[in-house]
Design goal:
The protein has 639 residues and is of the alpha+beta class. It contains 30 helices and 17 strands. A hairpin with a 5-residue loop joins strand 4 and strand 5. The two termini are 39 Å apart.
Length: 639
């Protein structure tokens, strides 16, 4: 896990040392840069995980210097690929995975991408073809940004180096702002800045003398179709009960295989352990491979969202070295500017605070690699909004009466009318229902606030327009293609790398992902029970107490804090002259909304997201701090 920067154009005016310093946290072990063909500069900050020797240093070059590579991430099948290359006569100077990727490229070109299993962002300079190639892994686990302004082109693992380059414009992308205010994150390829793009998961970018070419090299829909075909051939003679057992055995086998591969490391490793099935199962399976593995749990001081008791049960069962930490509301106020500096994309996910804190504590404990259960909800249907609750089920059973009540309440209680209509969408259009739940009925408000005319619902719907699986799988697929890479993986990458920790996600192992998506929704959530398949599998590994508690996300109780010091701070910042004068807002509408105190109780989530944006602008647009330690709390929180 590392961070890299590269650029071409006016090389003399660009300082690679300065750019690398801005992402030093991603790789504090070694820094190296190299000039290529008098056109490019590649620079790299290394976090040593595999092959700690200098032979694993990057940028890495082929023996004839014709190909140069930078790699951020891990390839989990690199040993198998290395054996394949050695049989073809390749020799290796290092024991890590980067040289394997380099030689795979020499042997197969970009066809090598079909064989890589892992998380990765790659930058390759091919002197032979005068091409620069950027690659992002299939599920968007690792980030990769780029900016093109004609004569200048640059890329980086984070946006901070790009924002410090003279040729990169800092004009705000209002459509991206609208996405953030609606969904709490921004969908690739957009970023908050018009001049900077995110490379989409499963795509590569090729820059040559003829221009820029962006192509998809991995398509999950195609992989699902192949898996479904294979499964039908294997099961067409089996009974339903046999098939259910087969599915469980296949999923367990792939999960064990993934955990084993994700434990490959030459440095200390740990696991985030909550009271959930995902992380509990990972801890159980990891303990079969490593005795006394480190596990880490976080809870909030006020007792809300405390899963430490369940986590402790798993830790005791598998004899892990367990650590518990506590968070209080003051931590959020004190750490938020620092978190937003590291994040460098606006992110409204309230889980950012606990994730940032637990990674900080993990790093202090000497851990450099940590596993998390991210991705389990998207594969096994873990979110509550995939299924109707009790009231919504009643509405669905009586659609005619519900439609009549919706019309009655449209004038008297419009919020109730909206909820009735949203519930009815479960039956008619589950995807539109999912989108409405996620954006919380905010679209008209957002369009007025930004004075903008776009269709954010259509933006989401386009992801599943040709996805032909069942309704539940369609919902899972939409979250997998959007929320997972652009929120959860962004959060995971920044909160781990802020503390020079490598985060790994065993549920996002290619063969496991493809197998899970090839299963019908009913096999993953039988009778509408969330994570039914995973819960059945976990019975062998986890205590019974896990089955008696509702799902809780790893997030902060921000709404509870809104009544105290934090709420007052949000009001002060949003009503400051500095915030009101931002040209991005419809000023009159903005002022009227933020000046009304009751809106901070009725619409605190809207206020919170606007607050995050204002702080983000102060940190990354107004000041451009080179390091998090340079941030002045007084200045950032000034009224």
């Amino acid at each position: 896990m590392c961070g890299f920067v590269g650029f071409t154009g006016d090389i003399e005016k660009n300082n690679i040392t300065d750019y690398l310093e801005r992402i030093k946290h991603r790789g504090p072990d070694q820094t190296k840069s190299i000039f290529l063909s008098k056109k490019w500069i590649f620079g790299f900050n290394r976090l040593s995980i595999l092959d700690l020797s200098l032979s694993g240093a990057q940028p890495m070059q082929s023996q004839d210097k014709m190909v140069t590579i930078m790699h951020n991430g891990e390839i989990y099948n690199y040993r198998e690929l290395r054996g394949k290359l050695e049989s073809k006569g390749y020799n290796f100077a290092s024991t890590g995975d980067t040289e394997v990727i380099l030689n795979m490229y020499l042997e197969y070109g970009l066809d090598m991408l079909r064989e890589l299993q892992g998380m990765y962002a790659l930058a390759i300079w091919d002197e032979r073809n005068q091409e620069c190639i950027l690659v992002r892994d299939p599920y968007g686990i690792k980030p990769l940004y780029y900016s093109n302004s004609g004569d200048n082109f640059a890329f980086s693992s984070e946006m901070k180096p790009l924002l410090s380059m003279d040729f990169v414009s800092r004009e705000i992308n209002k459509e991206a702002m609208a996405e953030f205010l609606a969904f709490e994150y921004i969908h690739a390829p957009n970023t908050i800045f018009k001049s900077i793009k995110k490379l989409c998961p499963g795509h590569y970018l090729k820059l040559s003398n003829t221009g820029i070419e962006i192509k998809e090299y991995y398509n999950l829909k195609n992989a699902i179709l192949k898996n479904k075909t294979d499964a039908v051939l294997q099961r067409n003679k089996k009974e339903e009960g046999e098939i259910a057992v087969d599915i469980q055995e296949e999923v367990v086998s792939l999960l064990k295989e993934s955990v084993k591969k994700h434990l490959q490391s030459d440095v200390p490793i740990g696991i985030f352990l909550s009271g959930g099935f995902d992380s509990g199962l990972l801890a159980a399976l990891a303990s079969e491979e490593l005795e006394g593995i480190n596990t880490y749990t976080l809870n909030f001081k006020n007792g809300e969202f405390d899963e430490s008791i369940l986590a402790k049960e798993v830790a005791e069962k598998y004899k892990t070295r367990h650590h518990e930490f506590q968070v209080k509301s003051d931590d959020f106020i004190n750490l938020l500017p620092e978190i937003l500096w590291y994040c460098d994309e606006p992110l409204g996910d309230s889980g950012i605070l606990p994730n940032f804190i637990i990674n900080k504590l993990v790093a202090q404990d000497g851990i450099k690699v940590v596993l998390s259960g991210a991705g389990g909800d998207e594969l096994f249907a873990g979110y509550t909004y995939y299924f109707p609750n009790e009231k919504e089920s009643l509405i669905i059973k009586h659609p005619v009466l519900a439609s009549f009540l919706s019309r009655v309440f449209k004038v008297l209680k419009p919020d109730i009318s909206e909820k009735i209509n949203r519930a009815l969408l479960y039956r008619d259009n589950p995807i539109k229902h999912l989108i409405q739940v996620q954006q919380g009925g905010n679209l008209e408000f957002i369009y007025r606030l930004l004075d903008i005319d776009i269709d954010l619902t259509k933006l989401k719907e386009n992801y599943v327009i040709d996805f032909l699986e069942d309704g539940l799988n369609k919902q899972l697929y939409l979250d997998f293609m959007t929320y997972l890479p652009d929120d959860l993986m962004l959060l995971a990458d920044r909160t781990t790398m802020a503390h020079s920790v490598e985060g790994r996600v065993p549920f996002l192992y290619g063969p496991l992902v493809e197998k899970c998506f090839s299963l019908p929704g009913t096999s993953k959530a039988k009778a509408g029970v969330r994570k039914a398949l995973l819960k059945e599998i976990a019975k062998k590994y986890l205590p019974e107490s896990f089955y008696n508690v509702p799902k809780r996300g790893f997030y902060s109780p921000i709404h509870k804090w809104s009544n105290g010091e934090f709420g007052n701070l949000v009001y002060k910042v949003l009503n400051s002259k500095r915030a009101e004068s931002r040209e991005v807002w419809n000023t009159s509408f903005y002022k009227k909304f933020v000046q009304e105190k009751r809106n901070y109780k009725l619409h605190f989530n809207k206020m919170y997201l606007m607050f995050i944006l204002e702080l983000y602008f102060r940190i990354h647009l107004d000041a451009q701090y080179k390091k998090a330690t340079e941030i002045s709390m007084e200045e950032i929180y000034a009224g």
